[in-house]
Amino acid sequence: MSKRIIVFIIAAVLCVSLTSCSNHMLFAPADSLLSPPLYNSQYEGLVEAFNTHTGSGANYSNPTGGDNLSAINVEDLDGDGKEEAVILYIDRNEDTVVHVSVYDYFSDKWNFCADFAGYGDKADSIMFEDFNKDGFVEIMVSWSYSGINNAGAVSVYSTKSMRMTYEEVFTTACDVSTAVDMDGDGLKEILFVSSDNDGNTITRDAALIKMGETEFEVMGTTPVDPNVTGYVSCKAEKAGEKSPMKIYLDAPKSGGMMITEVLFWDSEMNMLTAPLYDAETGTNTLSLRYELINCADINNDGQIEIPVQKPYENNDNSGTVKFYITDWVYFDVSKPVFYVRTFVNVKDGYFINLASLGSSDLYVRELGTSNWNSWIVCKKTSKSIGGDVLFTVVSVPAGKYDKEKYSSYITIMQTSDVVVNVSVNRDDLDEETIRKAVMKLPL
User: Fold this and answer.
1) Helices (H), 336-427
2) Nearest of 214, 251, 232 to residue 64 by alpha carbon
């Protein structure tokens, strides 16, 4: 049975036993957790070992993100072909921080090996990686506190013993962290961004560290824009064999604005680089936009594009909503390169590709009620004050959507929140053109 299936089974049975799945789940007695056909005495023993170690009042805590979303993870940590277990939990009798608890299976039973109090009431992610290829897998956990910005941390736990005597070998406060092979040597490094406030000035620096035989060493650091409120997304991209691994960090700024920091390892200069950061001004303006739009691979070519905005002066002067033109650019190591120009509807999650319409002389008018919201896309003409209407994009709340009512419309996207449809006003605009012009905004 695969590790992912086992973890899913344990989490699913826990969920059923408690009738609801929240972020913090209370362990029930082992005999109520596992039953045929999912019963496995080995994993019943794991729960028993956990209960013996923690006693009563232990809540298991699911990571809020990352690839491993279960509080119980089974992995071969020492390369012996047998699985060990790592459990995230909160002990309500002691404090509100998440703990990491490690268990090894030997002598036909699960045995407690190590336990660490973390650095937050949430584990944002947990990952398992042999950072120095010594045959023992490290445990990396990203931490944060609920409701507190810029109070995160990342920790790494390591062992050199087949008895899983893990120790905390690295912890640092940071705003965001990830593990990726930045220098292309086949080993993952840890990249993180931390901030410092001396009471007068806030600075932010990105750092790249690599694990040696027993500890991490700094490979390089670089300043990044300090005028952000945190980071909301972290994406990795390696567009080609000769391209460096690049990290894209989306960061909101005050006033509803946002930027994207790009970070990569410059192998020729042997340094960590943030090319969009201007050292003279201490800011990043090359990726600035006025709305909260994340960078994304909008054309599915394996290369991430960054949205850059400016006010759209060509829009309908009678409109009450301020519109922006959004240029998507990609980064080719030396400079941003223009890809495509769009209108982006952030609220309803779609964008309009102006290039596919063959005209730049367009504007948008917005109309809306409690039951729907629409963008009317028009082309300016000298004969009509309202312009020449090309098509109308209608966004309807999913709970109020009537499929029959909109049967003559082209459905662009449907989510749990909204259904986006298009009504065409021109005979020369067919469905294929519309689907190329109006597209779902990638996350």
Assistant:
1) none
2) 232
- Confidence at 190, pLDDT banded by 50, 70, 90: very high
Please tell me the number of Cα atoms within 13 Å of 394 on its side-chain side: 23
Q: Tell how far CA 225 is from the center of its chain.
A: 20
CB 259 within 8 A of CB 251: yes
Lowest-pLDDT range of 48-52, 190-194, 277-281, 434-438: 48-52
Tell me the backbone φ, ψ of residue 37, rounded to 5 degrees. -90, 10
Going by C-alpha positions, the residue among 249, 250, 273, 261 that lies closest to residue 183 is: 273
Could you report the per-residue pLDDT of 203-256, keeping only the tens digit for each? 999 999 999 998 999 999 999 999 999 999 999 999 888 889 999 999 999 999
Q: 365 vs 7, 343, 352, 387, 390, CA distance in Å? A: 50, 12, 13, 10, 12
Distance CA(43)–CA(85), nearest Å, equals 10
HSE-CB of 21 using CA atoms within 13 angstroms: 12
CA distance 323 to 310: 9
The b/e string for 330-365 (b: 16+ C-beta within 10 A; e otherwise) is: bbeeeebeebbebbbbbebbbbbbbebbeeeebbbb
Q: Evaluate if residue 272 carries a pLDDT over 80.
A: yes
